Amino acid sequence: MSRFSLPIGLFAGLLFLAPASSFSSEERRPNLVIFLADDQGWGDLSVHGNTNLATPNIDSLARDGAMLENFYVCAVCAPTRAEFLTGRYHFRTGVSGVSEGTGRLNPDETTLPDLFQAGGYATGAFGKWHNGTQAPYHPLDRGFDEFYGFTSGHWGHYFSPPLDHNRKQVKGKGYLTDDLTDHALRFIEEHHESPFLCYVPFNTPHSPFYVDDNFYEKFDGLDPAMRNRDPKKEDFPATRAALAMCENIDWNVGRILKKLDTLGLREETIVVYFSDNGPNSFRWNGGMKGKKGSTDEGGLRSPFLIRWPGHIPAGRTIAEVAGAIDLLPTLTELARVPAKTAKPVEGRSFAGLLQGDPNVEWPDRQLFSVWGKKRTTVRTTRYRMDERGALFDIYKDRGQRDNVAGKHPAIAAELRNALAAYRLEADKHFAANADRPFTVGYAESTTLPARDGIPHGTIQRSSKAPNNSFFTNWTHPDDSITWDIKVGRAGEYRATVYYTCPAPNVGAGIRLAWGHATTETTVTEAFDPPLWDKSKERVAKSHYLVKDFKPLDLGVLTLKTGRDHLTLTAPNLVGERGIDVYSLVLERVDKKAETDRE
Question: DSSP string of 368-405?
Fold first, then answer.
């Protein structure tokens, strides 16, 4: 057995349960506010020494609570969220990527909000979800009473964009990060008299680099005093925008901290702050190697700050290695929420470390990360082995410049074998979850965005990134768009396509088919709006294109349970092109009993 940790296979028999409460029966259980930044690096906070910006509100959590110096997440967004929500390595949960359905968290996983909801907490999420759109993957199916935000991996515009509020499409109000905070504040106000879990996964500083003038003015034209370890790689417009967006995050964190103070909830609320991966551009990050998408220190090390006055000593700094998989057992233990889960939890509770328990044991461990086909790495208390088998002494070499595998051959061999075993197990799970259709009929209304469809023929995506794209360039009657779906409940569904169409192309026929069932209509109204204004996007030539779309009723389609391709065609084009397509919505309109598909 490894002196660093248990072998991976033994995790299958482990289940972490919250210990018995040490609180009196009269004492209210703590509220929980969790901030998760999107693409904010460890170095994007002034508390870590970055003088390019000021983040006093976020920094205050370290002053008034604890800071973990070695806290690790995943290389990209959705995997981190899966590990945080379940306490399990993401490859076990169905999550393998960030788009085209690979970010979906399997429905049989128990989530942190599931546990808090079952424990009597009001639960709300306000921001970026990124672990599934259709039921039963939607936040409302994963333990949240309220959701306001977007379920995609990223969004294309940050000023009053279309959003999801409890499965209904609504229009946002103002700058998105501010708007999400407004809704979180309203939730806290409404539920402040009883325990609540308020999850605020901000959308920034993820691109597109939109930020309002009042935050950008400070950084416009800035020559950063602190730069990336390789200044030639740094994109300074991206750096300036990201710093402005981080200061906006800090302002919004301050608004929520102030609300807790105003309501007298400061001592009754655990506040957590971390990020989902390394920075999304080469900028100052403490001299570490790598950024978002990398499995080196710079891609995986995240800020982690936590405050709970009276329970977590102020100004505490913790050096032990921990990660996103540790949050479920830690937070359930702190809040006294029973943590029995359907599947084994792999994380460890570090509640004792936070509270200064002198008897807490924290054995050395192996903390793994995998991204893509080749990038796999492991971190122990002292060492990191990278994807090429190089070994680095992080105590002495946080920047991973000196390969010490030759000096420590036994350690290198042990970690190399552990990485190989981890990779084999990860690949097995990735393969098992590779063929998953999108789900329809598990809620009264299902949205199938362009992100989840496949274009055929001349049709193209508006963006190289599927997450917030629409389909365009429909130029041939043989072109089509398909969605691989599984219908969970039979019945009649009204189909609506969100489209645009220039006046010369009005009159085109649109047909939707599921097996032998079809419904069709004709485009009778032109709708050809301009692209949304990009003047507040601070990095030129981005690939994000956003415009308004209009609903077109396609009629009612009869669906039986089973799996097949839902196919959208335009057999009768008018002019040179067909419609652009943003999404397809299927809304159940009858209560027919479920039948087996023929």
Answer: EEEETTTEEEEE-SSEEE-TTS-EEETTT-TT--S--T
